[in-house]
Amino acid sequence: MKVIVFVKATKSYEAGAMPSQQLLSEMGKYNEELQKAGIMLDGAGLHPTSKGKRVRFAGQNRTVIDGPFAETKELIAGYWLWEVKSMDEAVEWLKRCPNPHDEVTDVEIRPLFTDEDFGLAG
Looking at the whole model, is its pTM more than 0.70? Predict the structure, then answer.
């Protein structure tokens, strides 16, 4: 099963705070473990929303909204794309992750849809 792991943003992340060299090193080691185990398919950190844009769809209308965006707790700072046997395996791997921020941080795991979810042959 493929899952996407979202690292949620924090106020300091949205303010442009960069991770420490220690955290970068710890995350590098963690990512190497994921790759060696065949779990990690992709992953990256994202710039703060001040550098982003949203496009709002309303019928045929499109409206461009410049960042930064409110509600920090709902924003994404980075992601991993993993191939795991089960959600339990994903949780076990995530529990081994260094804290992505130097404060309370939420990290969300969500399965990706597959062809079978739509009744299509895989």
Answer: yes
